[in-house]
Amino acid sequence: MIKKGKNKLYWQYSFGFLIIFSIITLPLIINKGLFIDGLTQHVVFFQDYISQLKAWVLGEPFVVYRPDFGLGSDVFTYYTFYSLFDPLNLIALLLPLKWIGVEYGLFIGIRLYLAGLFFLFLLQYQGIKSHKALLLATFFYVFNVTALYSAFRHPMFINGILWLPLIILGASHCLDGKKPYLLLVGAFFAFITQFYLSIYAAVAFLAFVVINLYLQRKTIPKVLLFKKLFKASLWFALGIFMAGFVLVPQLLAVYYGARAQSKGLLIYDSLYYLGTFSSFFIPMVSSSYTSALGNALVFFLGLVYFFQKPRDWKTIFFSFFSLMLLVSPFGYAINAFSYVNNRWSYLLLLPAGLALGEILEHHDVLQAEQYARPTKLMISFVVAMVFCLLAYLGTKWFYPSKAIIWQVFMAIIIVFLFVLINNPRFISSFWCRLKPLSLKWMPKVLIISYLVFGLAISLSYVFTQTTATNLAAYDHQEAFDQFPDDGFYRIDQSSYVLKSDYLGNDNLVYRFKSPYAYNSMVSGAIAEVIDYYQVYNLNSTVGYTGFNNRTALNAINQVRYMMIKSQDAKDIPYDFTEAFRFHLNEVVNPTIANGGRLTGKLEEVIVYESEHFLPFGFVYHQYLGQTQADSMNAIERENALLTHALIKDPQAEIVYPAVNKQLSTDVLYRGIVKTGTTYLCEEGAYLSFTIPAQAGRDVYFHADLFRELDNQKRHYYVEAYENNQLVSRFRETLYAKGTYFYYDNHEPLINLGSFATNEVRVKILFDPGRYEIINLGYYLNDVSDVKTKVNELKQETLQHLQFGTHGFSGDITLNEAGLLFISLPYSRGFTAYVNGKESKIERVNIGYMGLYLEAGYHEITFEYKTLGMSTGLYLSLASFMVTAGLVLINSRKKRDGH
Predict the structure, then answer these.
(1) Which of 195, 437, 547, 593 could lock 366 by a disulfide, CB 3.0 to 4.6 Å apart?
(2) What pLDDT digit, counting tens, does each position of 109-126 carry?
């Protein structure tokens, strides 16, 4: 009978999940919008690695290193962040690749379903038996703002919510003296499916174990407490180490990646606290990816449970992590001091869901004394929200002179209100009027709240997100057949599939090599190149957007073609001429950011070809030491790339023509109050100045310092006009320090293009706010001799180039000794062989690779191995052997009756 009851429960859960999920996602299924992260990142990556895995299963060799991942990258480290090792991928391998968009949506549903199922197991282990309580608590765990936000925006992050219940259930088994294998399994799958969020799960595991042992400190001997701690930690660690083949390479990839540097500590403002407090009541996401329960009813019932005595682990766990949402250093520390991020807030769902189940299990009626204090706390939350709102509005109304006075005044009022709420003599009559509260109506209201709030989240994405349209925006792939198949080259483009000027991976769908990438695990070596040469980059530390049509950088990176949509075809790179045209799907941008919509029409794309294309694997015979290069400006450094290899040797000094900056003199201001170097800009503010352009010269905009003074996200736009016609427009974003996209872009250097006329008008448009700007000016860089320099470098290049599964090979003949330059990101995973003998790989031009070669004929081979993979596999094997040994010991003890 018990088994039959459980089967009925699981059928009820499955049926209920299907109904609620279908209703919530219906607007997304019938909508035809396109969401930038889904379309240009998640679906694209999913299709790409599933197609590669399918080919491998069918007998093709697995390609470990791919030169079409931006400027080149490792497959494992590039895609593990995006759930390359998720066991659900086995399902995708069995389905046709043309269904990839359906699979993408299907996997969202499966992950949410499994998350609920595992949470249901945990509820049952906690002693909850009522089907009503079990189902309502489980549906909350799955259909809340935090879970659905992850599902619609970053589906692989559902894995954090999915594996957490299994880890806590396994830890409970371990502490209760039962088999610990579930803990090992949960830890293993958490780390291989989503390495990033598994770190948060590890923190949750540690908090759970420590809190439970602390609560048992008076009833259990200390020796036994430490034994329990050791046992739980051992099995959790074994699960992590068993995932060593993912753990070690990912740790090294993060260490050597573009996001390793700290973005600084962010101090929360009143708007953050307003959003965070609100997210306990309604389905909203505050800044720093912060979301709580998103349901006032669940919050209320959870508080009723948490105020009960004696306190249990759920109360302490929920209270601690709720408080940590208010402390930015915690969000900074839990992300390894990289930036402030609260994606870990999903940890609150587990104790809240368990508390909800407990209340519904044991209470049909709440007495006044049971919900009086929770009611007071919720009122306090509302008061805090009002204060945060008024404080935020005060900064807008009185900005900037009287904002602090306003906030101090509001703080005094709020303190008075808090004292009032908690003064029993003043409001005792109010609390005395509270009557017993029946919960008979609660199940229906909870279900309605799950549907309404779920639909609200879904509708918030309805203009920008769908799984129905998916990759249809990338149709007309036959157009790319016009590109010749005659060697290694890269193709750049002015905008990406959603008419976005950043966050693009079009090349992975259309199958061409590019100088851009959007991925959370891009090479740190290329990030150093971007920084050293001050390349305009909108992708911050999650990628790069090409080389801003900078002539020398494009040349050494084999950029042969540039794709520009016909309506934008004004800013054409120097010495690029039209090669051919084709048509792609037209996409228009809706009013909501980060999205687009197919119009059903086609738009023309013009392809331009470089007249100074430089083949892959050319040779330098002259060298520039980094000591001297450090004293040069970024444009002088770049110009040297066409004649000299930049190396570490401080003795390699050269005489090189200077490119001097000119300061802007005829600056016109509109809507700007300028005080020294401080610019106070109102709505629609701009400044403009004139540059005396010359043919054969690239025009660069530059400022020694250009930063926002209030630590707020601001945009500014740089436009170039020729004969009163807009030729080029560049958007730059100044992110708040400590936030996800922050990077030091406070010395802008933007190539505005080449111009035929003698005068260019530059216009800079500002978002409202305060800025500090020092030495606005420009450079005129003579590129008329580029073709001559490139022709000299073309004399000796790598021949018979072949890319394989683990690198590439070729041969070359040198008339005199030189340095072979390889335009792939420098990586310790490569080993180079010259004529069969291992040769040292030099770090050249800041972030690339090179080999010193003597005169004569050389056969060159670069072999790649995923950095840390061998160590990780050994760690996995060792963990497996230790686990097998422990299982064997345990089974013998059980057999012997111990």
Answers:
(1) 437
(2) 999 999 999 999 999 999
